[in-house]
Design a protein that fits this description.
By secondary structure, the protein is of the alpha+beta class. The chain is 18% helix and 36% strand. One of its GO terms (molecular function) is hydrolase activity.
Length: 132
């Protein structure tokens, strides 16, 4: 890869719970790479429809960004833009049989085994509490 990839991730709150997706061993927010010609907001809405079956999602305000440069794969470099999103639906459908989708209570999120850097990002922006 000759340049960083641009990704978006969606934080969808429902009360004190957040929508999270597990496709392997780690829980993460629904996320997707931004396609050529697609706005960041369109990518957020697509990620929610494709990954968790939320077809009425609306992209909300920008939260922040995170950068990942993988030491084990030096050609892997991504920048993820995080947005809040809202939906009227609460029923979700994982994108594959091997995925799991749940509304996770904010007070449990840090203990779940989140994707690398996600707990720190959510804590830094006031969405969850972590132990220092």
């Amino acid at each position: 890869m000759s340049h960083p990839s641009l990704r978006v991730a969606a934080l969808v709150p429902r009360g004190d719970d957040y929508l999270m997706l597990r496709t392997g061993t780690h829980w993460q927010l629904p996320a997707a790479s931004v396609r050529i010609g697609e706005t960041l907001a369109e990518a957020v809405v697509r990620a929610l429809a494709d990954q968790v079956g939320l077809v009425d999602a609306i992209c909300g305000p920008f939260i922040g960004w995170a950068e990942a440069v993988e030491a084990v794969a030096p050609d892997t470099h991504s920048v993820t833009m995080y947005f809040r999103a809202v939906t009227l639906e609460s029923e979700t459908e994982p994108s594959s049989p091997s995925a799991e989708v749940r509304w996770i209570p904010s007070w449990d999120a840090a203990e779940l085994g989140l994707a690398d850097g996600l707990a720190e990002f959510l804590s830094d922006h006031g969405y969850i509490e972590t132990l220092v």
